[in-house]
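Progress note, sequence design subtask.
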């Protein structure tokens, strides 16, 4: 099977890669990081189960009605739900911090990618200027 390739000189191939293909890949990588952290911290699931008992620990109220047992079970279940909510809120906040960081660093990486040749040339010119 023979592949036909478009004849390009090396400069035009590099410019096409640098300004078209690589930024597209950087955008895809950025999107993958956003999806990864959203799924890693399970933010939608944590929001749905925000007030669920911690690790599913919930006492049964049992048969009959005993005020002391009822209040003790209610207190235990409320504490379990409070701890579950607290841990979930903390996890959601950490996950959102990661999401915001990646959301900000994605465009920064793209800008640095486009400016890198200018930074490289400027640094070399400055080094020659300082050297001589």
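Output:
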């Amino acid at each position: 099977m023979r592949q036909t390739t478009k004849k390009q000189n090396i400069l035009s191939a590099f410019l096409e890669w640098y300004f078209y293909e690589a930024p597209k890949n950087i955008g895809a990588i950025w999107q993958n990081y956003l999806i990864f952290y959203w799924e890693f911290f399970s933010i939608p699931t944590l929001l749905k189960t925000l007030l669920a008992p911690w690790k599913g620990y919930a006492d049964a109220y049992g048969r009959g009605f005993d005020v002391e047992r009822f209040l003790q079970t209610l207190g235990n279940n409320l504490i379990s739900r409070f701890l579950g909510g607290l841990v979930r809120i903390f996890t959601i906040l950490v996950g959102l911090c990661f999401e915001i960081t990646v959301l900000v660093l994605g465009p920064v990486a793209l800008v640095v990618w486009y400016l890198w040749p200018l930074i490289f040339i400027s640094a070399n010119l400055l080094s020659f200027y300082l050297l001589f």
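The CA atoms of residues 92 and 130 lie 50 Å apart. Work on this subtask will continue into the next period as scheduled.
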